[in-house]
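[09:14] KT: can someone run the structure on this one? pasting the chain below
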Amino acid sequence: MNRLPVNKRFQEHVRGALQARFRCNDPEIYTENEDGAKRYIIDLFFVPDSGRADKIQDVIFYLDEAFIDRVRLGQKNRDGSYEAVVESNGDFVITVEVLIDGKSYTQQMWLADMLEAGYADTIPSKSIQDAIRNIREN
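[09:31] RB: done, C-alpha cells below
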C-alpha cells in the first residue's frame, strides 16, 4: 500500500516495485540510541519488471531533508534490483528516481509502506510487524 499518489508516468514507463527490508536479523532488528529511541538499518529496493531491467541506466534514492547525506545511488544486484541502505528511527517519504533512455521518472513512497511491500510475500514475525508499526508512528 502506498499512502502517496502513484505517478502515472512512473507506472507506465518504469514498471517496478519499491520495497524495503530490515538488514538485521530477527529479533535483533534495531539498536537503541542513548535516549532509548530504536534505530533500524534498512535496505531500500527498486525491483524493475523483468522486461525493463536492461533499459535502466540509474536508480537514485532521495531521503528526507533531515538527512545530511540524503542522496543514495542504487547499487545493482545480480537479480536486477537496485539497493541502497538507510538508518532510521521513523517514517519519512523517499523519492526514487529511475533513469531510462536519458529520461527521468520519479515515484514517492513512505518508508513504512516500502517495508510492508518488502514483506508482502511472507508472513512477517511479530518483531518485524512491531518494528514497521514503530517506524510508522515515529
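[09:33] KT: thanks! Strands lie at 16-22, 30-32, 38-48, 56-62, 71-73, 75-76, 82-88, 93-100, 103-110.
[09:34] RB: yep, looked fine to me
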